[in-house]
Each structure stands twice: as structure tokens, then as C-alpha cells.
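User: quick one, fold this
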Amino acid sequence: MLNHILDILLGSSKLGLNTQVDNMDIKSIRDVIKNTTKYCVDTFGINKRKKTEFTVSICKQRGGEKSYGQYCPYENKITIHYDNCTKLKDLVTTVIHEYTHYLQPVKSSYHKLLKKYGYDNHPMEIEAREMEKQYYNDCWNKIKNKL
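Assistant:
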């Protein structure tokens, strides 16, 4: 918090992966999510099976089991629940995670695999978690100077 106050007083707006989301304004949160999404498109490509372009929604979660985000294959929409993210790193990893789901055949396979493996051992969830871990640092290094 002291660093955040010093940044404001000194005119610096340096963000880091450990920056608390509560200390960020909505514009900064949107910029992080927008730039992370662009990184995903540039790095992983787009899902050519989809007939419509995906959208990204940034909002507070309004109910249900707490989540950082979700991907809806029927609306082709990634939703980021920024209010559940503690650190800026959570925003970046959540976008990468949900973008991975956008690339997967979620509509045809997700629920079958969920019944068989459960959530923690679900192959699509494992892949999405691995993508987060593998790419968040590279993503951050590419987007941090754009914020």
C-alpha cells in the first residue's frame, strides 16, 4: 500500500505482477485484460472452428460459486471476474486460462470429461492451468510497457 501511495505522489504508475487489484482503477484493469487477450491471440492464434469472433466481458461476479473467470462456448465469450482476483498476476493468468478454453473443443467434450474426471483432474483444466504457468511471465514481459 505504501508503494502505491508513493507511486501516486511521485507520479509513477508502475504496475507489477504483485500489484493488488484493489489498488488498481478499472481503466488499468481493462488495459491489463485487453493487452493479455491480444498477447493470447498473437501467441496462440484464434479458434477457426468458431463462426463468430469471441468477446471478453470484464465484470464483478454476481453470484454462484466464486471464480476468477469463465468461458461460455455458446456465447463464445470469456468473462473475467476482476473482483475475485487479488493480484494483477491473477488477471493475466485468468485470461490465459480462459483463452485456452476458448481454443479447446469445450462444447463437445467438456461435460463428458467432467463427469469422468471431476474438475481437478479434468484434462482441459489441467491444460489450461499448465498454459497459465508456462506463459504468464512471457505475457507480462511483453505487455508491461504498454500499461
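User: anything notable?
Assistant: The CA atoms of residues 76 and 126 lie 21 Å apart.
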